[in-house]
Specification:
By secondary structure, this protein is of the alpha/beta class. The chain has one domain: 3-Layer(aba) Sandwich (Rossmann fold). The strands form 2 sheets. Strands 2-6-1-7-8 form a 5-stranded parallel beta sheet. A hairpin with a 2-residue loop joins strand 4 and strand 5. The longest helix has 17 residues.
Length: 245
């Protein structure tokens, strides 16, 4: 399968972390009965396992300037990744269980540190290529809602619906602080804001697949919108593009 073809309908929602993509994608996938792809989680998974394997730091814990792409690709190809919808209503539990090589990792990867690992390996073309085929194969199995940075520009350029969901760095930092507090975790607004700004800089200016809207994407700023308003706007746009709910 190439990046230009898919058998089932595909909806791509790109944009920076904290813009609300995950919540909206999950609501769309449930409403349509589509499969969910969280590409950001893929990079977090690889980043976490790369760190655990000692591929992101040296023995003293200092980040290496030159990463071993061949070893990172080998590690990536060894991972069996599944997104399993959850019906759990437990407080703090994830709506989607992410299972890697038989072990749940959704709680392990949702923090700023692992987000930094993900951003480090996401700039590497060889790693991105190793994950590309996996993502494209998902669209041959059922309708798909794909959440990421380059879903509409690189992975599914012929997607049926493309949305670029963004928000200010300040709004996204405040949302992250609220999420962490709700999970009874410590949250430093200034530290989180600095991390978001630095990650945006890397993601928007990287040579391989920089984060940007597709030319034919609906661009929506969620800074001052609640989840239901964002969902309604995107649902209406999907319907305009021929997606039946």
């Amino acid at each position: 399968m190439t990046a230009d073809t898919h058998r089932f309908p595909v909806i791509t929602i790109d944009g920076p972390s904290g813009a609300g993509k995950g919540t909206v994608c999950l609501k769309l996938a449930k409403a349509l009965g589509y499969q969910l792809l969280d590409s950001g989680a893929l990079y977090r998974i690889v980043g976490l396992h790369a760190y655990q394997a000692g591929l992101l730091t040296n023995a003293e814990g200092v980040v290496l300037s030159q990463l071993d792409e061949s070893k990172l690709v080998e590690l990536t190809q060894s991972l069996n990744i599944e997104f399993v919808p959850s019906n759990d209503n437990n407080k703090g539990d994830s709506n989607v269980h992410i299972v890697v090589n038989g072990h749940r990792v959704d709680k392990l990867i949702r923090n700023e540190t692992v987000g930094g690992y993900a951003s480090q390996i996401a700039v590497l073309p060889a790693v991105r290529k190793a994950l590309l085929a996996l993502q494209q194969r998902m669209a041959t199995q059922s309708g798909l809602v794909a959440d990421g940075r380059d879903m509409g520009t690189v992975v599914f350029p012929n997607a049926d619906v493309k949305v670029f969901l963004t928000a200010s760095a300040d709004a996204r930092a405040k949302r992250r602080v609220e999420q962490l507090k709700n999970a009874n975790q410590s949250a430093d607004y200034e530290q989180i804001l600095a991390s978001i700004v630095a990650r945006d800089e890397r993601d928007e200016n990287r040579e391989a697949s920089p984060s940007k809207p597709a030319a034919d994407a609906l661009v929506l700023d969620s800074s001052k919108l609640d989840v239901e308003t964002v969902y309604t706007k995107i649902k209406q746009y999907c319907e305009q593009q021929g997606i039946c709910f």
